[in-house]
Structures
1.
Amino acid sequence: MADHIRQQIRERIATNVTGLATTGSNVYQSRVYPMASGNLPGLLIYSTSEDSEIDVMGSVGTLNRILNITVEGYVKSITEFDDKIDDICKEVETAMAGDQTINGLAKNSFLSSTEIEYNGDGDQPIGVVTMNYVVQYRTATNAPDAAL
């Protein structure tokens, strides 16, 4: 049995944003542990919520699903936070726009919001950009591991 489509989508997004000029291979599918200095600049990819509604009723129904995926970019620097955050945004947005159907797993995906924060605690300030994506996909009610 394949993994849940939600996991497949997360993994594909991680693949799509790995190797970008600013963050390189520092891409992690977790939000439990904070980013270590040696992994910056870097990206975290995780799902935050999902809404479903029945599309086709019957013994085996079809669900339309709206998945919220977050891509967080982290930089640690003394200067040029805005420029580095904007570089991360440009690279992630370009990569995501190049695969809006997430390798055929989704019907559509798009950037819904971007939030930028700075934290001056610690030896060097950290900048964090949170890019929230909406991913629309469909599954049968009895097969959450297969996209329709």
2.
Amino acid sequence: MRKKILALTALLFSAGLCLAVCPPPDLTGDCLVNYEDFALMAAYWLAGDPCIPDDMTLVPGGTYAMGDSFGEGEADELPVHTVTVDWLYMGKYEVTNGQYCDYLNSALSQGLITVTDDVVYRADSGTTYPYCDTHTANSESYIGYGRTGFSVMTKSDRDMSNDPMVLVSWYGAAAYCNWRGAQEGYQQLYTAYDPNWACDLSKRGYRLATEVEWEYAARGGLAGKRFPWGDTISHTYANYWACPACSPYDVNPTEGFHPAWYDGVRPYTAVVGSFPANGYGLYDMTGNVFELCNDFYSDSYYASSPTDNPTGPTTGWGYVLRGGGWGQPAYNCRIAKRYGYWPMHRGSGIGFRVVLDLK
């Protein structure tokens, strides 16, 4: 591996390129340099970034067939259509309670949020733009709120800091993206005082994945599969509600919630990263919690979707939700499964992860 990195470094220097100070991304395991490795290194070093945080991973761009290739889903998963996605950085994990709590305390100190009836709202919005529930508002939230601010609570004596943030709205996810971008010196993409919270994709900062980015990343380089690892599912691979009698591709030996995370106290989320990563180094793309996307939802969008980095309809009643969750059967955890979700709603099986454009 060291020989491969040195060889690529020499190639980049010979082209007159200036290397960033960041360590290189993972390469293929052999010691031979191929075009894919060179493209990966070149994209990484030409990004012009300071070091990307450890919780982000580089997803190589490409072209893939989007949708239900098995013809077993809903009408909104068809037609299968070919789309191209640019390179990007994506969060390895769903955003955790601990990360979101850091945001809430920072936002509270800056006067960006208010708490009414134990629900967090955007400041100066009354109750129009809810961000998340605290534990007092909904016992399935493990975000506590008191005189000293926000803190992550324990559940059954288990620290919930590294479980995915739940009971967060689309607005709350977008606000977190803006805050994280500002913390790391990037631009803020979401206009919180626009009625639709417009996302300026010409800027560079943290945001939610577009639907096409999410599905491409979830597939992890595997073409036409039901799940990020293949065509069958069990508790070995994901935190979901198993029902072998419900789906022929659910091969778990028993029915029910994942025994490692079922403690009788909802939600039955797992610590992020508890299951194997997919081919792009992403965890929990299926199961644990559904993930909010950047696109408006339309049940007919696939029929007219552009082929190059589509960003979804220009308007809609809600936003796309993907990935299944801890309380969902295998059918709802398929990569191709789509939902629409109201931006103000919060659920104990709903969370999000972030992306950052390469350029």
